[in-house]
Amino acid sequence: MNVSAWQNAQVTLKTPAQKWQESAPIADHREAVTLLLEKLLGYRIIESLQDIDGVGHRVAHGGERFKDSTPVTDESLAEIERLAELAPLHNRLTPWESSLPPAAARYAIGSGV
């Protein structure tokens, strides 16, 4: 994981009635989940962690199948893997690919293209 990319992470929480957005430094996925749970409780979106029935994931490029947050299942993970070539910077296939330094992970075309 490129930790430097998370130094100014955008945290957004939305309900039908309200939206909260702020920036925060986040070192890793564990810290991100901890922050998210703290915000859900702090903004009273949930009263307790037992209010959470499931977890979804928004796929960067999910074609027709993934337009919104989607429950994480064996089937959805297999479909994300199938669609990985459509968003290689987001839908990684292997830990090796996600560990590449930014210069190696980018396509060899100008950033203005």
From TrEMBL:
Gene Ontology molecular function, alphabetical: acetate kinase activity; ATP binding
InterPro entries hit by this protein: Aliphatic_acid_kin_short-chain, ATPase_NBD
Domain of life: Bacteria
Protein's GO biological process: acetate metabolic process
Keywords from the UniProt entry: ATP-binding, Kinase, Nucleotide-binding, Transferase
EC category: transferase
Record-listed E.C. numbers: 2.7.2.1
Classification via SUPFAM superfamilies: Actin-like ATPase domain
Protein name: Propionate kinase
Protein's organism: Klebsiella grimontii
A Pfam family this chain is assigned to: Acetate_kinase
